[in-house]
Amino acid sequence: MWEAIAFYSLAFFLVFFAFKTITVPNPIHAALYLVLTMIGLGAAFFNLGAQFIAGVQMIVYAGAVMVLFVMVLMLFDLKAELRSFSKGLFSGGLKVMSAALLAGLAIGAANSSVAILDTQDAAKPTMDVTRQLGILLYTKYLYAFEALGILLLAVAVGVVAVSRIKGGTHAQH
Amino acid sequence: MGIDSFEFTVNLLKMIVIFMMMVQIVPLLVWVERRGSAFIQNRLGPNRVGPLGLMQLLADAVKFLTKQEFVPGRGYPALFYIAPVVAMIPAALAFGAIPLSMPVNVDAFDWLGQHWGPYVFKFQSYEIGIGIVFVLGVSSLAAFGVLLAGYGSNNKYALFGALRASAQTISYELAMGLAIVGVILLFGSFNFADIVNAQAAPLNFMLAGHKVELGFLPNWGIFFQPLGAVILFAAMFAETNRLPFDLPEAEGELVAGYHTEYAGFKFNMFFIGEYGHMLVASALMVTFYFGGYTLYPFLTPETAPKIMAPIAAMFGWSTTSTAVSLLGALLLHVVLLVKMVIFLWIFIHVRWTLPRFRYDQLMDLGWRKMLPWALFNTIATAVLILVMRHNWGA
Amino acid sequence: MSQLLPVIVLAIFVIIFGVTLLFLASLISEKAPDNEVQDESYECGLPSDTSGPTKIPIKFYLTAILFILFDIEIIFMYPWALTYNDFLNGGAGVYILASMGVFLAVFVFGLFWEIKSKALEWE
Prior knowledge:
Chain A is mostly helical. Chain A is built from six helices and no strands. Helices cover 61% and strands 7% of the residues of chain B.
């Protein structure tokens, strides 16, 4: 029973923070609600038994990506949005489409989480999951792993190149 | 957190006590810092208020409580108030995951007419399977307290200080993460308890297929990872914004950096966060490299209860196995505290010995020197482990 | 979930502790006077000379992005370090070292290129 209460309150807070992210007018507050959403996502991963991924979510997403977001938002002196909701036909169409997408996702999620709160069978030691992840990653998905290294190198080079665009502040002479 | 109400209550109390331990260390550390720095600088330090100046911190606490309540005019009050609380959370959460002593075994007993089963209480707020990754994860959240403080103050010096502090913090997190990879390669586990238990044995390593054992030395990580220990310790200085990396709070340069506009207890809470991070850093150093709460030949989880049993009989305390287990755990906890105090003293001593780094020197050190050396440490550790633990005979 | 609950309880306790202390401090202390001088930001007593948005170097952004990239690479080394001994015992030690070696070669190349191209110069 306590598990159910904990799970539903986690789910409620996660949805609440995500909702506040998109509706609050001040951009820094929106970024901070997004941080809380990421932390909640980490808790949700932990709940599902993917403990290492929860840790990675906290380290990379909540600790690196969101720090970047918040730092960049603080670099620009943004005023709060004057109007939270934009008007017009195009944005109206977008709103209907995203509401439909959200409804579809919610129904799909509800259908596929039929027995999600049933107690797991005899608790496996959690190390097994992380070790299995490690072994799989370096045997079956080795190619994806190496390709990811190359991709990160491409991003690093791209970031430095973009920051040196001609006519920018960092352009090379 | 517990199957029945007794276990739940004990775990809850344990969590609160460990957190309050972190909070109460702050006045003690500040006193040690002020007296210690005074002796290093050949002056006296606070010695008027109370014996040896110990009441000075109580007076300071009262002063902080009664300072004027202040919000900068065009600041953002919500962020301004949240920032000190957010600064305390990562240190508290990280400190809870580190084992402070061996687990205590409580036998079954009858009380209030009910049969309470045998329990095992871990001597930490909670045990997380992925211990190290969890501590790293919540430590990365430390950058947010700083950013919120700088932004909420609406003061461009505070904002600059906050951006520089968070850039410094994230740069040194890389070297920290890599140094920890070395430790994981060595011990093969994320769990702190496994790492400490592996160090409660004589020094052993595989050499050309045979197991070499040096009985007089414990299996501490420092003997296997000296470079990694130095890198981790130096990176921890930068994470906690302590000198020589404390440009973000530099007096005389940025006024007081990101906590310029803070007064009273909110200012004190930033220091609870900073000293809490120092505690976590010392605890991590001791756990990874210096045996944690064990001291191999004399004080290990096996020998500690055996040592405490005759002492308990001598003093007339109860000698049930529960009491002996608890006393053994307390003895090992004292071992950990002594080791942590040594590292805390090193933190304080370094602060008053080294001059401060300039910001570009600081970032240069983090990206161009520490990160390559940490990479080298990881690669060398991996190659050495492969060479030494390979079964050459088979 | 049973492992996560104490973490959430501790986080809530820390928040309550902080908020209670702040509330106590606000009860005991005097309120700041609400005039214009009090509201100015502190600049060592000198009057503010610049107003409007502050210009901040873009190097902070570069540092943060490069930090994300290298952090992801370091995260990949954690399961590797965890299962390294398992691979060794299974006889695949050279394989696991070589596979991470390729990844590390790319990583080291990226790091040294970025150092050499002075992307983080002055910082």
